[in-house]
Amino acid sequence: MCGIVGYVGTRPAVDVLVRGLKRLEYRGYDSTGVAFETPRGILIEKSEGKLERVESLMGANPNADRSNSVCGIGHTRWATHGKPTTTNAHPHRAGSVVLVHNGIIENYREIKSELLKLGYKPESETDSELFGYLVLEEMKAGQSFVNSVRRAFKKIDGACSFVVMDEKHPGVIVGARNGSPLVLAKDPQGGAILASDAQPILEYTKDVYFLENGEVAIISPQGVEIQSLETGARITPAFVTLNWSVDQIDKGGYPHYMLKEIYEQPSALVDTFNSSLDRSRSEPFVLAPHKGVDLLMNAKELTLIACGTSYYSSMIGKYWLENYGEIPVNVDFASEYRYRSSVLREQSVLVGVSQSGETADTLAVLRELKKKNVPTLGLTNVRGSTISREAGGTFFTYAGPEIGVAATKSFTTQLATFLMWAGALREKHKKGSGQKLFEEMIQLPHLLKSYLEGDNGVQKKIRSIATQVQNKKGFFFIGRGPSFPIALEGALKLKEIAYIHAEGYAAGELKHGPIAMIDESMVVVVLAPKDHWREKTISNLEEVKARGATIIGVGDANDSHLKDLSHHFVALPAIENEDLSVFPLAAVVQLLSYELAVLKGTDVDQPRNLAKSVTVE
Ligand code: M6R
Prior knowledge:
Blueprint: E1 3-9, H1 13-24, E2 31-38, E3 41-48, H2 51-60, H3 64-68, E4 71-77, E5 92-94, E6 97-103, H4 108-117, H5 128-140, H6 145-154, E7 160-166, E8 173-178, E9 183-186, E10 191-195, E11 207-210, E12 215-220, E13 223-228, E14 234-235, E15 240-241, H7 257-263, H8 265-276, H9 291-298, E16 301-306, H10 308-323, E17 329-333, H11 334-337, E18 348-353, H12 360-371, E19 376-380, H13 386-390, E20 393-396, H14 409-429, H15 435-442, H16 444-453, H17 458-469, E21 474-479, H18 483-498, E22 502-506, E23 522-528, H19 534-545, E24 550-556, H20 560-565, E25 568-572, H21 582-600
Residues 307-310, 354-356, 359, 362, 405-407, 492, 496, 613-614 line the site of 5-amino-5-deoxy-1-O-phosphono-D-mannitol.
């Protein structure tokens, strides 16, 4: 989950590292550090806490060697082994070797006891530092720097990547990947940059190379070289050109990335529709051809595997795929599916759904099933991500970079993709039967845009409600049908960014236990669009109302019954196909958690204990 940057070239290295780490802080922000070459060896500056701590340390201690350095590495940490202290912060030093690490060394206990026997005294509690001593041992035995990194890396079990410098080899940085991502690019001004993802690179170039597992990258002022970890043989990297731009990774005037990303949902939907469909065809739901499309269209059953918000989008996907696409769909948490024996039908296709494309559990299921010859698909927002490269076929969402840890536009673009799949399968069963759904679908971006940005933009209303309920003890979100996963998503968001206890429930389940919790100190958010389930949800609401909770009703603008039962009411936009109400409903729960988080003064974009891509189990 940590973020890594390495740079060597002609620019001030620390500047490149700090700018890069700012872009990577979403991966973890417990502690931060940089190491850079100086005429007196490699200097390390690091601290517990966010990057700004290291920046202020540097500001208080100007240093010409730091400003003149053109080679260095940096790291932002999400603690696994050892607390988030300055000693445990990366970079770590082992003699002349200095390194940063992302991932986990599973056999670190064995390695540590060997190293202790050899007389090494690791300073930190991390598994990462140990790798430096392994490299050092290889160099002591006469191996070159690059071969030492290769040989040391082969002794390690677990998914990880390292970026390493050595004082005896100035101007050279070696990166190795097995599991955790590493991206490489040549700096057009000379030299090269390595990072955990492409975001720190985009301001210099869009031509990048995603290292494969088992590859080693050597960067120097002369450029880049890729080798096989196993044999050391040279590999010719196939660079790809990314279509993300630097503007997309700035806040664009919004106070938080999360808010910007909520407002970007209409355009993210347009981009996802335009890029996923073959727009040269007039028939509805013709998916732009690629390997994944055949796998999808020939499947007899789909098994959607995901975590967190991606799991909730998959639950909604199931409704649509079964309802419109008439295909059986299973949905499971990757972390659960992984450790149970499952039975798949003939021609079942496993789909790993993950905005980051790096989530460890989702990836593990995909790999496991691939080994069993089950056809696999990926659905992700990140080109070049591990899931996108390992799945048998990959569909992309076109949400653009999502920086806020809370998933927003990646969620709604996943929904859009499931809707397109459902429509395409419907058309497969009967040509023309998807036309109406298609017309309803393509109105969504406009509908959502007016809902968010029109004269009476919904955010203002939600902010006023949030102000009135901010001191309540806890929240229940309830809904039925496709609104149920939105209830789960609303509760997740509120916990995640506002640290308020919240639960999402299928409305019909309240009376089977949780209703005992309901009293005046609680808020119940009732998601009741004018759909097939509305009436039942309303009767569940009556039960809650009698127990004194504050009710926030979310439903059709003309639903006077729901309005009468609610203390606060959020009107949904008029929508022809009520199945599609999940899009504005998603915006409502996202904005409610956002406004409550702002009122609580939490760190909205980087909530505590979390990271954007969860690359550890
Ligand atoms: O990258 P993924 O979609 O695989 O991530 C899965 C979850 O970690 C993620 O959705 C998480 O729940 C979000 N931060 C929620 O907003």
